[in-house]
Amino acid sequence: MPSIQKDMTxxxxxxxxxxxxxxxxxxxxxxxxxRAHFKTRFPTYSVSGLYQGDxxxxxxxxxxxxxxxxxxxxxxxxxxxxxxxxxxxxxxNRQVQRKxxxxxxxxxxxxxxxxxxxxxxxxxxxxxxADEFDLANPGALTAAxxxxxxxxxxxxxxxxxxxxxx
Length: 166
Hints:
alpha+beta, 6-stranded antiparallel beta sheet, globular
């Protein structure tokens, strides 16, 4: 088992190169710009602050009125482990998360992953937004993410309407 001291030595060695800091700043700038884009582009949505995370995820949430009244939101996530942008259907608390997971788990989701509730799991359904991306072309990345988030949101809304929207 690696020791924390060995991990700290390795972190220090890697940080001395500067590429980790530059890449992290670029990711945070991209997420900040995405958040601002969604806030401007969708003025009827509630948009949360940016959570920077602990090199596990960085995210912000958008809450379209149709989902917000159910206690649901769409988290736009940079998942460091998978190294990709994702959208997650998430809930305002664990009780709401469990309720909607029960309702949606049986739906056919060809392009999405249904995630079983567990400790530390915040998503109900996940959608990959971009795993091959170029931060040097932010306009194209933003447009691709917006398009996929819009489709993901519509698909969730349709599934909720199909089962009576309870």
